[in-house]
Amino acid sequence: MRKWRGISDRLGQWRKGHRRFRWWSLLILALLVAPMLSACAGGGARHESWPGLMVSDGTLYVANLEHVQALNAETGKVYWSFPEGESKKVQPFYSTPVLAESYGEHGFLLVAGYSDHTVYALALGASPAERPDEVWRFEGAGGQYVGTGTLADGLFIIGNGDGSVYALNVEDGSEAWHFITRDRVWATPVVVGDTVYVASLDHHLYALDLASGDELWQTEMRGAIAGTPVVTAGSLWVGDFASTLYQVDLESGSILWTWEAADWLWATPAVADDVLYLADVSGHVYAFDAATRAFIWDAPSIVDDVIRGRPIVNQEDHLLIVPGYEKGKLYAIDTQTGKLRQDWGVTLENPGRLPGDLVADGTRLYTLPILVQERVQAFDLDSGELLWSSPQPTE
Amino acid sequence: MFDAILVRPILNLMLVLYKFLGHETIVAVAVVTLLIRMALTPMQLKQQKSMRRQQELRPKLDELQKKYKDDRERLAQEQMKMYREAGVNPTSGCLSLFIQLPLMIGLYQAIIRVLAATPLQLLALPDDIYRWIPSLSTLIPLKSQFLWLDLGLPDPFYVLPVLVVVTSWYYQKLLTPPAMDPQAEAMNKQMMLMMPLMTGFFSATYASGLAIYFLISNLVGILQYFLFRKHYVAARSAAPAPAKRGSASPSGARKKT
After folding, report:
1. How far is CA A199 from each of CA A147, A163, A204, rounded to the nearest angstrom?
2. What are the CA-CA distances from residue B230 to residues A309, A321, B178 (Å)?
3. Nearest 10 degrees: CA dihedral of B121, B119, A371, A392?
4. Which of A212, A382, B78, B212 has its CA 20 to 30 Å from the CA of residue A120?
5. Do the Cβ atoms of A199 and A160 come closer than 8 Å?
6. Is position B253 within any domain?
């Protein structure tokens, strides 16, 4: 009875402050739930992307967060940023810039934004340091640009999140044609002769006529296709989210051969001498002779990381370099044995993550880490030594 | 830990439902919501019974308030004594809220992850998919469009948040027990305003899949309330008069419902 009275007293006291308690409990609840929901929605001050870069004549063109930048490939010094200053409209770039050298006086740089759904054409100056002028923009797409465009026959062909592939006249940005698929197109279109090959998240591979955009054939795959197909040994090779690699006949679209990897195939394979270097998202790396359909290594090389970006091959040193996404590490694999090369590369204190494709220019390898301040890094291709980072931590 | 216990099972359940229910994400979300509501039903019925009893005790509470209007501590003691004897738990509403909270966060995370609105979110998805269930990866990406909605993004026209606010308010109104004093009445009014506004805010700010969860959850709750009331009234009219029950032991009171 005494025990009950004690509990009753405490409840009585609690009820006295009940009103205040319920108010505070709701407030605390809201404060607890909102960050939890925000965190899982990826809500943050900055919308990260996977940035892309291309290198030409000692200049890097980088599409990164809200800007396109030109950098000196040797030093990492930034020549210019577009748009200038802080961008008011958040438009993180996923799409890699493309250089159309034979347009304008010194070439056009074509780049597509993610959330602003816009393709920009920038006329480059006489020197890399000269700020470019915007010559046209294409705002006719309804979705985000993730994949990179391809140049062919005066057209810039690029897939969009609205499910369409757009062919734009490079000269003035006018639309030549567009082709509608059933889902987003994140892969870069591939052009062979007069045919454009388009892989879509709708599980289909399409072949289109380059001049008209008319469909020549379509082939259904098991999973969504986000990686860019490659053409080698007279066939088209593409992987999907059903972990399947397909060999496709270029003319008819018929599937000639399939093989199943351990996990999703998203990274575009690296190709050297008809050998495909494939990596799945759980870190299995395979070397595959496309001409003989034979695997070169006895077993896949396994790196303990997620792989999304395209690897590169350093044929001179028999090295395959693979970007690890979650650990932000570069893994070097001997192309002849499939063994990891521990003597290559450096361990960085805060490497960030590496979702993007690797790019090399013969002497240097460039990466674009995310979630760190250093947004562009250059490594010695032979040793893996870090040469420079941009911006410098003090910048 | 939270991922393994709650988020991944819900995410994979959604994928399985998506596979077998016509490749419609909204149907998968609706069915998962219904399953969660079904799992919570025994607890919520208990809560509703408790609140019904509180309503029935209202005349006695008024008497107690008059009798002990100058001694709030004694009033609280007498109220608790009466609740105890009638088998009523006045804090059962809070328990329901705190059990629903992790489920809501788990479902929301599952929706966001499975719909993967951005490429970086999609890159994180393979880790969450159970490989022992065949062909789940072939379903990716899920169809996120439904009418004007992208289920992975907030409703651009605020239709769902408005519906959520209205249904939350009504559901809250049905569930709110009668106030025992002016202070409690003021608190009830604030709760009836705060809870719908909070769910409305979440619905307007986060993925519309979450708003679908709130909406279906509220509608099912309202339906459940009326079904319960019908059943309860029928059961009560068949039982002895409530005046006699006031002096019954707590266990006895429970047996009679």
Report:
1. 11, 11, 6
2. 61, 70, 19
3. 180
4. A212
5. no
6. no
Least CA distance to B106: which residue of chain A?
A37
In A, which residues are within 8 Å of B109 by CB distance? 40
Instruction: Report the number of distinct structural domains present in chain B.
Output: 1
Contact list, B201 vs chain A (CB under 8 Å) = 30
Residue pLDDT tens, chain B, 257 long: 889 999 999 999 999 999 999 999 999 999 998 898 888 888 777 777 777 777 777 778 778 878 887 888 888 888 888 878 877 776 666 666 677 778 878 888 898 899 887 899 899 999 999 999 999 999 999 988 888 888 878 899 999 999 999 999 998 888 776 666 677 677 777 777 888 888 899 899 888 888 998 899 899 889 988 887 777 767 766 666 554 444 433 333 333 33
Tell whether B252 is covered by a domain: no
Which of A13, A33, A50 lies at the smallest CB-CB distance from B101? A33
pTM of the model: 0.81
Question: Which residues of chain B neighbour A22 with C-beta distances below 8 Å?
Answer: 187, 190-191
Look-up of token digits 């149907």? B27
Fold of A297-395: Thrombin, subunit H (2.40.10)
Q: Quick one: which H or E segment has residue B149? A: strand B149-150
Please tell me which residue of chain A has the smallest CA distance to B137. A242
**For the segment A308-355, what is each residue's pLDDT rounded down to a tens digit?**
999 999 988 899 999 999 999 999 999 999 999 999 998 888 899 999
**Domain-located, residue B154:** yes
Instruction: Classify domain A48-180 by CATH number.
Output: 2.40.128.630
Q: Return the domain boundaries, chain A.
A: 48-180, 297-395
CB contact under 8 A, A18 and B194: no
Chain A closest-CA separation from residue B234 CA (Å): 33
CB B242 within 8 A of CB B59: no
Domain-embedded: residue B66: yes
User: Cβ separation of B187 and A18 shorter than 8 Å?
Assistant: yes
